[in-house]
Specification:
Length: about 240
């Protein structure tokens, strides 16, 4: 069990608010009353997280895990980094899920009716476990921008969603990463909903160290769970 005395306080000022007027749908789902904390039963906190033991060989490789008749279309990329706690120690054996739009800016989901092509060889979803050093690694296709109807001429920047699971069902953190130099960042209410001093923590870094010669460009995105430099999350608090 972790020593709670060693946990630093969560820096709520680094995270986006429940209600951000520029991001219209938050008005429909943000709470209007103070949250009431519920004390979980001991048995609920002891449950394993679903899926840890079911990681398949290609779950981390979105360039291969949905192939039907060829290669997925788009710019291949490597996404890798570390999951770290508040003391910058690696977080081992943590389940990370990833989901994203394809290179044309469309999700494989019935709700997404954007007039852009679906790729029969790209699902846009994957998962992996961090290793003993807290490291994770995905192979994927760089996502495209897409219109989302939040305001006139609204386009979401290129981004990838990430979900991290802890040791019980309730311990889930969700965030999304963006790409350096994206001109749409300055117009995106979701990105701008994060306090300015913490926004750069949501932007991954291009690195030749992770780039695979002749195959894919490499990007690094470290995830800090608490403390100084904590990654902004979209998790209720």
């Amino acid at each position: 069990m972790p020593d709670t005395a060693l946990l630093t306080p969560r820096d709520w000022s680094s995270h986006p608010p429940y209600l951000h007027p520029g991001y219209k749908s938050t008005a429909k789902r943000s709470p209007t009353q103070r949250l009431i904390p519920l004390q979980a039963a001991l048995g609920e906190l002891a449950q394993p997280v679903y899926g840890h033991e079911c990681i398949a060989e290609l779950d981390h490789d979105l360039t291969r895990n949905a192939r039907r008749n060829g290669e997925p279309i788009g710019e291949r990329m490597v996404l890798a980094g570390q999951v770290l706690d508040e003391h910058r120690r690696p977080v081992r054996n943590t389940l990370i899920e990833l989901w994203q739009a394809n290179a044309s800016g469309r999700y494989v989901h019935k709700v997404d009716q954007h007039d852009a092509p679906l790729d029969p060889n790209f699902l846009g979803a994957g998962r992996c476990l961090t290793d003993a050093q807290g490291r994770y690694r995905f192979l994927t296709i760089k996502p495209g921008a897409y219109p989302w109807g939040n305001h006139p001429n609204a386009w979401r920047p290129q981004h990838i969603h990430l979900s991290l699971f802890g040791q019980h069902f309730a311990s889930r953190l969700v965030t999304q990463l963006y790409f350096p130099g994206d001109p749409l960042l300055q117009y995106d209410p979701i990105f701008l909903g994060t306090p300015e001093r913490a926004r750069k923590r949501l932007v991954c870094d291009f690195t030749l160290e992770l780039t695979q010669e002749g195959f894919a460009l490499g990007y690094r995105f470290d995830i800090v769970l608490r403390g100084v430099g904590e990654t902004p999350f979209e998790t209720p608090r």
